[in-house]
Amino acid sequence: MKKKLWGLILSLCIILTLIGCTSEGNKEDGSTTPPTNQTEQGEQEKKDDGKNEPPYTITVGYPVYTAAQPDLQKVFDRVNEVTLEKINAKIELKVVPISQMASVYSVAVSSGEKLDLIMMVPGSQFLISYAARNMIRPIDAEVEQYGQDIKAGLGHILDAARYQGKLYGVPSKEITVNGRGVQMLKSIIDKYNIDISKIKTYHDLDEVFEIVKKNEPDMYVFWPTGVSYYFLNYEGFGNYYGVVKNGGVDDLKLINMYEDSDYIEAVKKMREWYEKGYIP
Q: Could you tell me if 74 and 66 are in contact, meaning their C-beta atoms sit under 8 angstroms apart?
C-alpha cells in the first residue's frame, strides 16, 4: 500500500513536491559544445531550465458538497497556466463528492491509483485515520526545507495536521477566524432604509426585526434553517463542542458552555425573539 501513496493537503504543497524537477543539461541535440557568446548562452539556459521536459501531471483529489461547479475547470485551466510556467506541471482534478470522500480515497490507495494530493473538508477526521494506516506520508522535511513561510503564517495552527508528532498536511487557516452572521433581503433593506453598517452584534437586529414584524405580517422575520445552533455561537464560541471558548484563540481553558455568561445571554436572546414572534 506504500508504493504510490503520498498525499498532502493544499495545492501549495505542489511546490514542495516538485521544486527539484529540473533538467541537468541540453538533452535535445546531445551537443556538448559550449555556447560561443552570451546570446547562445542565454538560449542554452532556457533549454536547461527543465521546461522543455514533458510536464508532470499532479492528480488532486478535490471534494465537493454536491456536484462540481460548471466553471470549476476554467479555474484550474488558469491554475495550469501558472503551474506550467512555474514548475512545469499541470493539475488534473479528481472530483470527489463529500459523502463518498472516505471510500473513494481508500479505494484509490488500495488499488494503487495515482493520487498525488488530497484535499479534505474542514473538520474532517480522515487525516488522522489515513496517517495511522500509512495512506499518506509525513511532509516534515519538505515543509522544513521549503515551507518556512507556511510555518510563519500558520504558527501553532500547523500542529493541527500532526499525528504522533509528524506533520501530514497543511491546514487551512480561515476556519480559526470563522464568523457568524445573517443574510438579509436587499429588497427589505432598501424598502425600510435599514442601515446595515450599524449592525455589529445580534443585539442590533432587534430594531430590524421589529420593523419587519410590524410592516410585513406575512413574512417570516427570522428563519434559522441550517444555522440555528450556530447562531448561539455568534458571539465567538466558534467551537460547537462547547469546551474551548472562541476556538481556543484567546486561551485553551476548558469551560462549561452552559454556565458561560456569553452563552446564557445568547440563549436568552433566542428565547426573547421567539416570544416576540420573530422566530416561527
A: no
Structure confidence at residue 13 (pLDDT): 37
The alpha helices in the chain, defined as continuous H runs, are 13-18, 38-48, 72-87, 101-111, 126-132, 140-146, 148-154, 186-191, 205-215, 228-231, 261-275
Q: pLDDT per residue over 11-25, tens digit each?
A: 333 333 332 333 333
Using CA atoms, how far apart are residues 231 and 233, in angstroms rounded to an integer? 5
DSSP codes of every residue in 153-185: HHGGGGGGGEETTEE-----SGGGG--------
Q: What is the mean pLDDT of residues 117-128?
A: 78
Q: What CATH class is the domain 13-176?
A: alpha beta
Predicted pLDDT at 38 = 47
Residue 27's nearest CA partner among 54, 52, 58, 64 is 52
Sign of CA dihedral 233, 231, 121, 104: positive
Range(s) of the chain covered by CATH 3.40.190 = 13-176
Q: Which of 156, 162, 123, 122 is nearest to 241 (CA)?
A: 123
Paired residues of 166 in beta bridges: 163
pLDDT of 26: 37
The whole-angstrom separation of Cα 244 and Cα 255 is: 6
pTM over 0.85: no
Higher pLDDT, 244 or 62: 62
Residue 64: CB atoms within 10 Å: 15
